[in-house]
Amino acid sequence: MAAHACAVTGVNQPGDGYRGGQTHGLTLPLLRYPVSEPDCYIRVISGREGLLESINAYDLGAGISLGSIQFNVHRAAIFQFLHAFNEMDPDLFHPCFDRFGWSPKQVTIGGTNFFALDVVDAAGNATQLIGRDADHSRNCGYFQSGIPGHDSFNQIDAAFRKDLAAAFRDGVIWPHVHETIMGVSGEWLRPGLKSIEAAGILPIDTMRPDRDTFVLKALLLSAYVRYSACLAPLLKALKPYASPAAKLAAINGVLLASDSWSSCSQDRRSKLATRLAAQKPDAIAAWEVIDRLADSYPGAPLEMMAAAIAPSVEVDVDDDSCDHEVSPILADHRFWDAQAAASVTQLGNVSQQLQSLMAREVDRTQNRKPSMKAARAGEKRAKRIVSGDLVVKTAKSGRLEMAIVDAIDDNHLYVRNLEGAYKRWRWRDPAGPLRNRLQVLAPSKAAARQMAALREELVFADQALAIPPFGDAERRSILTPLLLPAVNQAALAWNEQRHPSVSGVGLGRIAITLESYVDFASVKVAIAAAQGAAAATDKAVLVEAIHQFQSKTYVDAAQHDGRCGESTLDNLGLYLGRPGLNQVDVANPTAQAHLTSINKKLAGVADNPAAPATLNAANWFRHMTAPSFLGQTFRNGIHAVLLRRLRAAERHLLGMPAYQGFTPVKLGQALGIQEFHRGSRPTATTASMHTFGLATDINYTGNPWIKGSEIVRVLQRARRLVSGMTLEGGSTAASLLHANANKTTVEIYDFLWSLDRDFRSYLALRDDAEELRQLLERHHQNGTPGIFSAGETLDQAAIRWRNTIASDLANLGTDDGFFERDPRNGFLNLSKDLVIALRDFGCLAWGASDFGLGESGDIMHFDCRNTGLGRVINKGFVPPERHCA
Description:
This protein is α+β, with helices and mostly antiparallel strands. It has 32 helices and 23 strands.
């Protein structure tokens, strides 16, 4: 099983000093709460180093590198790991490593303790490796060749290294071994953390870390992992900047300054600046997850819900005391690792029914003369307004306005009226007394029951946004392991705290919606079989049903917690009108200004939904969603307009014979989706469709935005050498690719795929002299023009072409679209079926070809500019309008 899930692949790149084997891994390190340093930073560092099962057995001078920070023989980390592994689970350790004669131990030399490893080398000799600096080359040699000290590139035994990688893989694939990897990684980082704190950067609060301090320390430890000699001079250069925020703002500048650092060259500083700039968004996103965990931690005040609604609060113009600006409490929310949640169905004129019922109760209350006792009780009750109360305000005109309280601070109520608009009302005057135009509604018991039922239905459900329902066989299929009873109970408590009081959706409604995806009877049988009949209560079954839904809709195991949060609610179509769980509903100021300027143009557009989901400039960002698509979530979420198009593409894919009956996770795996999607950009000041939530980048790493003319010249040489053909169509990547925009999606994709194939094959020839010579011989026999210079021999041509390829590979970089990407991995790994579904059935523009003569080439990018609201909003190139299936 491990060999299929995490295969070992060979690496042979002599030009880079690489030979051996590797695994890419499967599992991201989890963020835990309360946080612990330095472990909390490993998730951020892993984004540039590797997953928990990542193994590098091909590099020169490291022996073998392992895990999320790629620790190795340096500082005896690999020996420490092997010792801990053997101590923890010898029954697993020995089947993995007995064939090498390994026995980890600790030894004392000259009064100092060292981790050591008894081995049988490739010559059959028993020997001992000692984890000390003096033995570094000897230890590297063993892990590279099977013979201690054989540490040169020519002495590498590639087969031994691949076998070694497979042995480590068979151990580290197990979750309990992940804990050992995390423990050793933390110990390895600890000296770096000590240096950082010695430089005056203080430890973080484990319950509520300061954002700038967390991000700064994550980046500095990332520098310590990859460029450890640069950490000390970097800390020295940052010393004049007093606060963590100032240091964070200065870090790029000090790295790129022209002064000299004796232990860190300008080239290393430049590479480090690039690395840290790329990791900063990940560090911010990690902090935001921790911050949300802090909000939901037991004991967090309910008043913090005000933060969730503040960005979309309107000042009530009917209240003359509210004439000052509302300062949004949360200015910069990004969605990352969203919590899980549930669903619901659409109902009719719920708002009107509730308004009528509330008005009737107001009349009843006003026309009834209460007793003195009832009056005193009512006054006392009014002075302790709580979240969830129904309140009525009498305007100066005498008009009654009714609303539901979402959150409270000292002087204000944050309310949601029956049309779904958020407002802020003053409820106490500065002196303290309750405002006489505001009252808490105390309905009769019968009316209260009716209102409670209606309020749950105020959350609007849009089935076009929901994940397509599962077939009966999939609904009855129960994935294991189930949630443990204690985890199930904790998730239940979490759910009961938030549903319906925060979400506006009751657990009963969630259960009804989940029936389209999970068979509750099958869940009950599974719990009874695994944990006993007494454990299979209705509440436990509901939590496990949520867990089953999450397990089939999210790749990330961190999402499989049985807790019905924002993302799962959106996956079930329950996205609009929730008083809470709206973390991604964040307006981009630049985009908001543009929407306001074109507000009248939005009305009546074909894909602008009917009420209550009708879109305008004022409510645009309240329609942001945090769903998953093909098993992966979106950083910062996406708009409902885009999600409807993605679901249309998903339904098309599920209708194809190859994918029928697949869950989102299975479908994403079949299509080769390898990472989370990029979505909205809440703080960007560009005209990008991302700022409106109307664009996404899919498989970002493997599908760069290729740009400029240099890449075209390389593609021309690749097409000629590999395929013997001439590439025509444009001198820049944009003009070359946009020339195909009017062709069918199949034709566009096939053209790009052939370019990518030749490009990869061409660059691979740098390190494959035999294949290059054979190719040149075929061209010589066929008389292919443009391959040989006049009078050039086969050997001379081989040298010239290899030098050309090497130069092309060295010169391709950020300007061509390969920022932190290896050009040898190509520029297209999107599935053909997926691209067709998105462009032809989701009716999305593809950045590869639909951005015009100046901008096409963005392979990862899909947006809504082709038609409907996206076409009205778009400020960039406008492609011909398309009418899709």
